[in-house]
Structures are given as structure tokens and as C-alpha cells.
Amino acid sequence: MESGSLNYYILLIFAPLLILTGIVGFVLPQKKSLTSGAPAYNIFHMVFGLAGSGIALSGHEAYMRAFNIGFGLIDLYQAAASRLHLFPEKYFKWKLADDILHIVVGAFLALVGIFG
Q: What is the pLDDT, as a whole number, of residue 31?
């Protein structure tokens, strides 16, 4: 168990933020939010936030690295999917702020997972 690793600390912070993002997405009116408030997108954040929290609490370095790399790549895909009109665009209804966040967070998580 390597719970003192960079992957651990990043996931310990990031996973609850995903849960919070999903909850806030349901609370804020979609028209007033800079990011998508689509229900499917909110559920996506909460499910992955719960999974990430469980993985962080497990303390298994390989799983934490895999989550960070995998979710980072998913974020990068979402930015590309938004611009290229690919799945799941019609369900997630991304906005420009989502695209920017996906690029920044996705690259960061993938790099932490690879090099952390």
C-alpha cells in the first residue's frame, strides 16, 4: 500500500470534487452555469467520483494510477468529442468551459498517473 504517493493525494482530492461537481450540476440551473448541467453528465461525475474515492481509500497504487490515467484520457476524449460532435455529446451537452476543463484536467491526471 502506497497511500503517500502523488497519485493517492491527487485522487483523494479529485474524486470528492467529481462528486461535488455532479451534485452542484443538479442544483444550479443549466442556463446559469458555465458548464453543462445535463443529468447524464452529473450522474457520470458522481459515479466516477465514488469509484475514485473507493480506489483512493483502497491505497492500491496500481489502481490509483490506472484511474488517473484512464479518467484523464476520458476527459481528453470528451474535449475532442465535444468539438467533433461524437458520443456522448447529445447526452452530456458540453459547453466551452467543459472543453477547457477537460483538456486541463485530463492532461494533468494522465501525466500524474504516468509520471507520479
A: 87
